[in-house]
Amino acid sequence: MGKRYDSYCGLYCGACPIQAATEKGEVEKKAEEWGLPAKDVVCQGCKSKVNAGLSADCVIRLCARDHGFESCAECDEFPCGTIQTLERDGYPHHTAITANLEAIYERGVDAWLAEQKKRWSCAACGTPFTWYEEKCSSCGAEVYGARAEERDMAEERGERADEDSPYWKIRRDLSRFR
C-alpha cells in the first residue's frame, strides 16, 4: 500500500506538510526546522504502511481500523466525542474534518479526493500547497489555507474569530509547521 491522501478522520493528507516533506525529499531539513526527530517527519498517510509518529499511534486511526472502517463516516457513533475534540483542538486544519467526512459519505472518497486536490492547489498555477501556507511556493499567489478556511467556517456558524484571544494566538503560533 503506497501513499494515501485520504484518512480515517477526514483530513486531506495531500495538504499535510509532513507528507509534502516526505514527497519532496526534505525530511531532514523539515525535521531540523521543526525540532523533531527525522522519523517523525516521514509519512505517506495514515492508511499507508509509512506513518509519522503522530499518525502511527492515533486513537482515531486505531479505532477505525479495529472496526474495519475506511473512515469514521461509516460509524454509527459519528461524530463521536473523539472526532469533535479533534475538530476543536486548536489546529485550523482540523476544523473541517466533520464536513470532510460527511462529503466522503455522501459523494464517495474518489470524488472527495478530486475536490480536495483542487481545493489544496493554487488557483493561479495549480501547484499543491500545505495547510498553513499563505502564498504559493511556485508563483507567489495568495492561497486559501487552513487559517482562512477556519475563519470563514466560524463566520458561517455566526462566531467571531477573535484574533487577540489566547485561542487564536496559539493558532498563529502553529505557523512554524508550514
Question: How would you portray this structure in words?
Answer:
The chain is an all-alpha fold and 178 residues long. The chain has one domain (13-177). It has helices spanning 17-24, 27-34, 53-56, 59-67, 81-87, 97-107, 109-119, 146-156, 166-173. Helix 6 packs across helix 7 (109-119). The radius of gyration is 16 Å and the shape is globular. The protein starts with 16 loop residues before the first helix and ends in a 5-residue tail after the last helix. The model is unreliable at 174-178 (pLDDT under 50).
Radius of gyration based on Cα positions: 16 Å
Mean pLDDT: 84
Tell me the count of domains.
1
Number of helices: 9
Classify the beta-strand content into a percent band.
under 5%
* N/C terminus separation: 27 Å
Which shape, going by the Cα principal axes? globular
Q: Which ranges are low-confidence, i.e. pLDDT below 50, for 5 or more consecutive residues?
A: 174-178
Instruction: Tell me the helix content.
Output: 40-55%
Number of strands: 0
